[in-house]
Design brief:
Elements: E1 2-8, H1 12-15, H2 17-22, H3 27-35, E2 40-46, H4 56-60, E3 64-68, H5 78-89, E4 93-97, H6 104-110, E5 117-129, E6 143-153, E7 163-170, E8 175-184, E9 187-192, H7 205-218
Helix pairs in contact: 5-6
Bound molecules: zinc ion (ZN).
Zinc ion (ZN) is lined by residues 98-99, 150, 196.
Pfam families: ThuA
InterPro entries: Class_I_gatase-like, ThuA-like, Trehalose_catabolism_ThuA_prok
Region (Disordered): 222-241
């Protein structure tokens, strides 16, 4: 059983009717319902809850955190960002979606500006699988088409990903590294691009399958905790008294 927490700032849905019409219960609940299987235990958290819904207890009880944010990045408390960061270092998986590229936690984990090119024209996006052997691409065809999405284009200011799984092409001509993995401490981070709030992207079966695969991939491994600092030799070193 993988314990997943879906975090959404949950502001657009409250403030914009257009978004509320697509996600009446919020993006977090659409994702939670969409990825649910018997092997996943899901809870949600939102910005306006106390501690943004990310208490120590809840995070300690989370194997993989999914993050959707946009207009409220600055409202996320630095202490909570630090808490999430520490959990990632200790092995919690993190899936950052769409406009989460500018979230405090993603920027902190990347160490770069994370800026990109964008356009809201509701154009076609074709997501190409460029690493078909990767577990996050399991069951995903050669390409997935989303009829209407916001465009994100290169250059995407991130460090070179540890693994590149998907690349997007847009009708207007741009391309984008839309499925990237990063290893940070003992934690695994997956950035996945689609999911602009005015399009029903989080009902798309392949988008949901990719997030579900991401959860499975990012779940903590059983590796022992690394030991650091000054270290006594495991066996006698020749030539030393
Ligand atoms: Zn967007």
């Amino acid at each position: 059983m993988v314990k997943v927490t879906v975090w959404n700032e949950f502001l657009h849905e409250k403030e914009h009717e257009e978004v509320r019409n697509i996600y009446p219960d919020g993006i977090h609940n659409a994702i939670a319902e969409g990825i649910r299987t018997s092997e996943i235990e899901i809870q949600t958290a939102t910005l306006e809850e106390p501690e943004h819904g990310l208490t120590e207890e809840k995070l300690n009880n989370t194997d993989v955190l999914i993050w959707w944010g946009h207009m409220g990045h600055d409202r996320v408390d630095d202490a909570i960002v630090e808490r999430v960061h520490q959990r990632v270092m200790d092995g919690m998986g993190l899936i950052v979606l769409h406009s989460g590229h500018f979230s405090k936690i993603f920027k902190k984990l990347m160490g770069t500006g994370c800026d990109l090119k964008w356009r809201e024209a509701g154009e076609k996006e074709r997501i190409w699988t460029v690493n078909p052997a990767h577990p996050i691409a399991a069951g995903i065809p050669e390409y997935v088409t989303i009829d209407h999405e916001e465009m994100y284009g290169e250059h995407f200011d991130i460090p070179a990903p540890d693994e590149l799984v998907f690349v997007s092409w847009f009708e207007g001509g741009e391309v984008f590294r839309s499925g990237c993995t990063f290893f940070r401490g003992q934690g695994k981070v997956f950035y996945f691009r689609p999911g602009h709030e005015t399009h029903p992207t989080y009902y798309h079966p392949h988008v949901l399958q990719i997030i579900r695969n991401g959860v499975k991939w990012a779940a903590p491994s059983e590796a022992g905790k690394p030991v650091r600092g000054n270290h006594q030799p495991l066996e006698p070193i020749k030539g030393q008294a």
